[in-house]
Amino acid sequence: MERIRAWGAELGFDQVGISDLDLAAYEARLDAWLAEGLHGEMDWMAAHGRKRSRPELLQPGTRSVITVRMDYLPADATPVEELLESPERACISRYALGRDYHKVMRQRLKRLAQRIEQAIGPFGHRVFTDSAPVLEKPLAEKSGLGWIGKHTNLLNRHAGSWFFLGEIYTDLALPPDRPVRNHCGSCRRCIDVCPTQAIVAPYRVDARRCISYLTIELKGSIPEEFRKPMGNRIYGCDDCQMVCPWNRYAQHSRVDDFSPRADLDAGDLVTLFAWDEASFLQRTEGTAIRRIGHERWLRNLAVALGNAPTSAVVLNALEARRDHPSPLVREHVQWALEQHGKAAG
């Protein structure tokens, strides 16, 4: 096992752990969460039966899960706090500023599996990076990578929460690591700071209220009650991580792929809103942002522009999209214009 940890470190992973397959307690919590409809339109959360909570059903023959984490916070990114105080600029979740982490993590997990194979011979395995029905955070918690905080992100005493998770399901019978103790205590900063009160109770998030869900997963119209609280957050939201005391220990990423692209870090809202579809596809190529498509990109930016200080530049930008072919974009542009005192045209 120590060799696996060493190989993982050489490949850029900041921690490697081992979990067994007993996720019964987490399965019960997932069932209750889904029964309340707190997953919103994320039907895929319930679409695979027990495969999500029973690894041996997803990958027959699985006996252990190798879990990894990789820090992603870029050292040269504009601080979230600064962006939230600059309403004319776009605030994009820190994880999405560079190359799509799915690709980075998957390639390195495959290389880790190859290193193991070189040492012991062929073995059954499958790698995952948020790419299949996998309970990533529970597996990471069981393997000692951290504990699930009140905001439902994984927390580590020495690294905060700015990291990605990945897994290798394997038929090797590896000795599991011991979970670590929960260190959230009485703190509720993440609950109190949430702009839309999406953390409805400690360790319980109503995705339908979460800005990350609204800007990334939701395909249709953003409910009006959440548009003002969104501020200038156009892709995801980092507020609960921003205020977490444990993130004072967060480490900057050692992976160049996660360095922010100039267009995406602290970009001007009006400039980003002017991108046509070809520009959007070209400038977001290889990033996680591309998955929402140009239409939802404009939807999110229209809301942010509605929340921006009134100016001729902002009004002109919105007016230029008033007759956009997409009803979704038109609706949010009209809402934005109304925030600046402009009646329907």
From TrEMBL:
Identification of the protein by name: Epoxyqueuosine reductase
Subunit composition and interactions: Monomer.
Reaction(s) catalysed by this chain's protein: epoxyqueuosine(34) in tRNA + AH2 = queuosine(34) in tRNA + A + H2O
Localization terms from the record: Cytoplasm
Family: Belongs to the QueG family.
Cofactor names: cob(II)alamin; [4Fe-4S] cluster
Pathway(s) served: tRNA modification; tRNA-queuosine biosynthesis
Residue positions binding [4Fe-4S] cluster 2: 194, 210, 237, 240
Positions with a binding annotation for [4Fe-4S] cluster 1: 184, 187, 190, 244
Functional summary from the UniProt entry: Catalyzes the conversion of epoxyqueuosine (oQ) to queuosine (Q), which is a hypermodified base found in the wobble positions of tRNA(Asp), tRNA(Asn), tRNA(His) and tRNA(Tyr).
Enzyme nomenclature, EC number: 1.17.99.6
